[in-house]
Amino acid sequence: MKTSHTPPGMPVSLILHHANVVTMDPARPRAELIAIGGNSIVAVGGNDLLSGLLSPGTRLIDCEGLTIIPGFNDAHCHVLAFARSLLSLDCSPSSVRSIEDIKRAVRERSRATPPGSWITCAGYNPFYLEEERNPTRRDLDQATPDHPVKLGDFSGHVCVLNSAGLKAAGIGNETAEPPGAVIDREIETGEPSGVLYEMNYVVDRAIPAPRREDLDRAVAEASRLYLASGITSLQDATADNGLDRWRLLSEFKANAALRPRLAMMVDPGQVGEFRKHGLEARAGNNEMRLAAAKVMLTESTGSVFPAREELERLVLGIHRAGGQVAIHAIEESAVSAAISAIEYAVAVSPRPGHRHRIEHCSESSSSLVERMKSAGVVIVTQPPFIYHSGDRYLAQVPADQLPWLYPLRTLIEAGVPVAAGSDSPVVPADPFAGLY
Question: Are 378 and 339 in contact (CB under 8 A)?
């Protein structure tokens, strides 16, 4: 094999040779050598190209037959949440099996934490707890009454506070529920049980930001874990991303704490603020750029929020401005509402190649798949959820809905573009679980 695409005068800085290269090119599925110059692959071919590509300073790596594949793009993750989870107490199913285990871990952490300081915990999953329920403030009070505690669930949509945490966050008997959110209450007393739905953004305002040196360390470790999984580019899908978040992530890119390339989604309510600073959709460079406006469509209150008129207004405004939306939708009714909003925007203001996205798209019947195809929607879903939550789906999803739960092959065969992400820290970033 003697294929080479080396541009004239392009210096070769790195050559990987004696490798099993998976090219993803059907016309040439395998190669033995890759040559890199600057930020580009400048040659792919056989080992016989080696002598002609060498120049002073070229670094050589003999792969000794190991396989090289293209880097993965994690199309939906939460970079800073993943980093912060590394600073939190691990309460995932791999570390705890019961509420008693959680209480024991919090109690132990409290001994090394000054009274009054927050203790944050991450990753609990009620399905895998022996008690098969959410912990409550009373459970966490037994672990420590002297520290405000936030226990985040695996999904990122539920958290539990102890009594000190509720007080610090300003949540009490008379607290009104924010739009789209739910404050669970004890039946006997009407007091908050400590379980909060879609209120992480409210709680996080009360929690002091981690020390910058701790956050730097956590971001660097998150970056290492992404790269160790073969992930070389990320799309951060955090719903409240604003200008301050853009600047912070830019700093992590500039100081090389965060190595993978990054596309950052934006809170639709902050799009105007970005424009004031000269940042439009897709602004940035090869290392970091702005991505879609992230729209949260939830059913925590029992109905789709935001309502149809507001959702259509929001999507149409972004669409008309030439932007892209990424709509979080889980349940079939939410997925249908997301498609309807995109259909409406495209009908009012036709624009080919808009690439509006639906994130997760967990429940998708055949009729919805046809509408997605017609509307030109891109689906960004999470194959590793099937691996990590399969037992829970089998136990909790009605049997007649199981055929339409993450129907990836149906989507692909219908011609709907499908991308994959981990939603880390919801599940580990490792893409091979999703491939499996």
Answer: no
Q: Are 334 and 212 in contact (CB under 8 A)?
A: no
Identify the helix (H) or strand (E) that includes residue 290: strand 288-296
Question: Which conformational region is residue 24 in: left (phi greater than 0), alpha (psi within -120 to 50 degrees), or beta?
Answer: left
Residue 9 has a pLDDT of 61
Lowest mean pLDDT among 8-17, 62-71, 86-95, 283-292: 8-17
pLDDT level of residue 64 (50, 70, 90 thresholds) = very high
Q: Give the sign of the dihedral formed by CA 275, CA 280, CA 285, CA 287.
A: positive
- Alpha-carbon distance of 28 to 388, in angstroms, equals 35
- From the CB of residue 343, how many other CB atoms can be counted at a distance below 10 Å? 18
**Which long-range contacts (C-beta less than 8 Å, at least 24 apart) are formed by 95-99?**
95/123, 96/124, 96/129, 97/128, 97/129, 97/130, 98/129, 98/130, 98/131, 99/129, 99/130, 99/131, 99/133, 99/135, 99/139
Answer yes or no: is pLDDT of 318 > 50: yes
CA 85, chain centre distance (Å) = 13
Confidence (pTM): 0.91
The helix or strand, by DSSP H or E, that contains position 417, with its residue range, turns out to be: none
Among 99, 159, 158, residue whose Cα is nearest residue 131: 99
> Which uninterrupted H or E stretch holds 139?
helix 137-143
What confidence category does residue 330 fall into, taking pLDDT thresholds of 50, 70 and 90?
Answer: very high
